[in-house]
Design brief:
Layout (H helix, E strand, L loop, with lengths): L3 H15 L5 H11 L5 H6 L7 H40 L16 H14 L4 E2 L5 E3 H6 L24 E3 L4 H10 L4 E10 L11 E11 L4 H16 L5 E8 L2 E10 L16 E10 L1 H6 L8 E8 H9 L12 H4 L7
Parallel strand pairs: 1-4
Antiparallel strand pairs: 2-3, 4-5, 5-9, 6-7, 7-8, 8-9
Helix pairs in contact: 1-4, 2-4, 5-10
The structure holds 3,4-dihydroxyphenylalanine (DAH).
The site of 3,4-dihydroxyphenylalanine has 11 residues, from strand 8 and strand 9.
Length: 345
């Protein structure tokens, strides 16, 4: 018996087999028509209710046959188009074209110098300590033996926070000494790197912000000779094995006695140049034995413990080492300047 819908399905199968979608777009049209959620075969399935019972099985088989034909055609064409697409894409890929440039950063000369200093002290057991850049009057000045009317405050004028006479931007890393001593008992062996601020007119030689590294060593029986030997070790690691040091008497409120340390000029080998102003020596840091009053201010028994401290400016050392003639260059973020310094650390 011939049922019209059977003929229709057979015609569809013929159509499916004859189809040759030539692009992904045409294939998609094919998919929608024969395999999509509202495909023609589904439409024809609805006819099943009009099919006599004895033919229902044949009808189902025929529909399935059409569906399989559509699936097979789809898979075949898709494979072919995908492969062709890959070839086409590969054909357009120019392996000789220059890559997108990826600009590598470089370490800041201040970081390079700071890391060098930290590494040198870490090797002899110092650990890094940090403190806040917004500091209170007590830690920055008073605990460090510089009370309110002390003339040494004049040399370290700074920026105070609005509506506060006690909160300020720290003028040196020395307050980290006070913070560490308040929070732990000796033995103390710390190195404190960080940024500091001063109310200075900005010029080639001075800036309102710069960096320092502070050192503090407190234990029983620590002597001036220990300080001298530690600093000699540092100078030789930093500036070369032949470096000599000299300590000149100086004054800092928080150390007694105090000294300033020079190293033999590493630019001219102490022969005399414009960096060392033809003296053969370059000033590097301030140091001294921690004043017993500072120990007491911070809760450490000055009868039992002694110690030494030192502090140095980082930019100054970077300026000397790299022969930079203007401190402002360190803060301008000009990559043409910054990328000239590379280092493994
Ligand atoms: N804080 C001093 C300054 O900024 C530097 C200094 C000198 C630090 C002597 C010290 C020290 O720890 O003992 O000028």
């Amino acid at each position: 018996m011939s049922v019209p819908v059977f003929e229709e399905i057979k015609a569809l199968i013929g159509e499916i087999e004859a189809q040759a979608p030539a692009s992904q777009e045409e294939l998609e049209q094919f998919r929608i028509r024969f395999l999509g959620s509202k495909n023609v075969l589904k439409g024809l399935m609805g006819e099943i209710k009009n099919i006599p019972n004895e033919l229902k099985r044949d009808f189902g088989q025929l529909i399935n046959q059409a569906k399989e034909a559509a699936e097979q055609k789809f898979a075949e064409v898709k494979d072919r188009l995908d492969a062709a697409g890959d070839d086409a894409a590969a054909g357009h890929l120019d392996l000789t074209a220059p890559g997108e440039p990826y600009i590598l950063g470089s370490r800041h000369p201040v970081s390079i110098t700071m890391n060098r200093i930290i590494r040198i002290f870490e090797r002899i057991g110092f650990v890094v300590a940090e403190g806040p850049e917004i500091e209170d009057d007590w830690h920055n000045f008073t605990a460090m033996n510089t009370p309110e009317d002390h003339p040494a405050r004049d040399m370290q004028d700074t920026y105070y926070l609005r509506n506060s006479t006690t909160m300020l931007l720290r003028t040196h890393t020395s307050p980290v000494q006070a913070r560490v001593m308040e929070s732990q008992q000796p033995p103390i062996r710390i190195i404190a790197p960080g940024r500091v601020y001063r109310n200075e007119t900005i010029s080639a030689r001075s800036h309102c912000q710069f960096h320092q590294v502070e050192g503090l060593y407190i234990d029983e029986n620590v002597s001036f000779a220990d300080m001298k030997q530690t600093l000699l070790y540092f100078a030789r690691e930093m500036y070369g094995a032949n470096t000599s040091i000299r300590l000149r008497p100086s004054f800092f409120p928080f150390t007694e006695p105090s000294a300033e340390m020079d190293v033999s000029c590493f630019i001219c080998d102490a022969k005399g140049c414009n960096i060392c102003k033809y003296t053969g020596w370059v000033e590097i840091l301030g140091c001294g034995m921690v004043d017993p009053q500072v120990l007491e201010n911070c809760g450490i028994d000055s009868k039992k413990y002694t110690g030494f401290a030192f502090g140095m400016g980082i930019e100054r050392q970077a300026i000397l080492r790299y022969k930079v003639n203007d401190i402002r260059l360190f803060f301008e973020n000009d990559s043409r300047f910054l990328k000239q310094f590379s280092s493994a650390i």
